[in-house]
Amino acid sequence: MSSTTDKIKGLANEAVGNVKQGVGNLTGNDKLVAEGKAQELKGEAQKTVGDVKDGARNLADKVTGKR
């Protein structure tokens, strides 16, 4: 998976997680709040993976002289 794909999926999971948390809070559904928080954290991790891939690619490019 590319770094951009990781970042996009991460943003989507964060957004859905936030919505779940909001709905859970409004309805008093603690399970939905917990699911939303877990999905938000998954999204943050996916975005971090994308950032790490970008960093590794940039470093490799500098080492090999491609940039």
TrEMBL record:
Domain CsbD-like: 6-57
Signal peptide boundaries: none
InterPro entries membership: CsbD (IPR008462), YjbJ_sf (IPR036629)
Protein family according to the UniProt entry: Belongs to the UPF0337 (CsbD) family.
Protein name: CsbD-like domain-containing protein
Organism of derivation: Methylobacterium hispanicum
